[in-house]
Prior knowledge:
The protein has 2 domains: about 1-215, Rossmann fold; about 220-280, 2-Layer Sandwich (Alpha-Beta Plaits), CATH 3.30.70.980. It is built from 10 helices and 14 strands. It has helices at about 40-45, 90-100, 105-115, 130-145, 160-175, 190-195, 215-220, 235-240, 260-270, 285-299, and strands spanning about 1-10, 15-25, 30-35, 55-60, 65, 75, 150-155, 180-185, 200-205, 205-210, 225-230, 240-250, 250-255, 275-280. Strands 6-7-8-3-9-10 form a 6-stranded mixed β-sheet, with helices on both faces. A 4-stranded antiparallel β-sheet has the order 2-1-4-5, covered by helices on one side. It has a 4-stranded antiparallel β-sheet with strand order 12-13-11-14. Strand 12 and strand 13 form a beta hairpin.
Amino acid sequence: MLKIKNVTKYYGKQKAVDNLNFEVSEGEIFGLLGINGAGKTTTFRMITGLLDKTEGSITFNGKNIDYNTTNEIGFLTEERSLLTKLTVLEQAKFYGGLKGLNENQINERLDYLLEKLEIKEYKTRKIKELSKGNQQKVQFIMSILNKPKLLILDEPFSGLDPINIELFKNLIMELKNEGTSIIFSSHRMDHVEYFCDALVILVKGKTVLQGNLKEIKDNFRKKNIIIEGLVDINDLKKIEGVINVSENKGTYTVQIENNDIVENVFKYITKIKKLTKFVVEEPTLNEIFIEKVGESYEK
């Protein structure tokens, strides 16, 4: 288990991370979210030991993270960090050697991952000759070559098409099922919702929202009702508790304050003709993120 307890980081007088606390259990995917400059990269670097924290503690399975534990960690950075003049195999030998793997282990693991990501024909190709998407695959492979017990994924799907995103998803879930603790960061909230059971949102280094994703959604005051039928937007807007109504290609999205308003909207809907759809939806993580981050910047 990864434990982040009361962690603060200063750059000079600037506080980049402010009293951060969270835990990631074995086999859990935890979301660390925030816009650019929120403190995510600083947090990743403190976890991996690349930066010293100013205050607090960071432990993995009860031990401080240092050079004795880095072989158990994998880190897929948002920026490209490949030696592009090397072949994929040469890169793997270099990286695998740093992680304490022998040549047989490197070859066996590399062959497996190349096949899983459908690029086994590129094993002896120079990285600079590969497309951006395939370079991203190679970078991902390097981050999990050592079968890490703790894995940090920062924008892992950058430059990938939907088919290759599915290949990545399958490998990430495979690692989760094998017990890897994963920290997942992305600006794509749909990806966060797919993977993460719990998360924290940072704004200027401070936690503005934290907890179990399902509970966060249940407690969020805004809900959506999706309606298809012959409705009048102005009539819907007059219903007490309706925040907003929008329309797109005959589908109406009614944003309400809470679940208590559903009954009022339903009473109106029963009076209209040709009703084909009435669905109460949970708020999306994207809506929650925008509201929470926006509120914090307004303070």
